[in-house]
Write a structure and sequence with these properties.
Elements lengths: L5 E3 L2 E3 L4 H7 L5 E6 L2 E6 L7 H10 L16 H6 L6
Antiparallel strand pairs: 1-2, 3-4
Length: 88
């Protein structure tokens, strides 16, 4: 596909057809990189995208347990002596 470079203020840009944006999953922002003589645009993905499904799968395989094997977290003296709770 060929497209023209257009003036946008002091910059230049291109118009990307809506169907291409939709196909690539691009919404409001992109990652822009230059590699050699190529400009690479990539959609910005939520860093936690897909975590819910991965955690669900981990739970199905009982692979969601604490690695140290301890299910309780012991309080330190700082928790009981140094910390002042607002509701006390």
């Amino acid at each position: 596909m060929r497209t023209k470079i257009i003036k946008i203020g002091n910059s230049r840009g291109i118009r990307i057809p809506k169907v291409i944006l939709h196909q690539m999953g691009i919404k409001d922002e992109v990652s822009l990189q230059v590699e050699g003589n190529r400009i690479i645009l990539q959609p910005i993905r939520d860093r936690r995208s897909g975590w819910r499904d991965l955690f669900r799968e981990m739970a199905l395989h009982t692979d969601d347990r604490l690695l140290d094997g301890n299910n309780t977290i012991a309080q330190s003296s700082w928790d009981t002596d140094e910390w002042v709770w607002d509701d006390e």
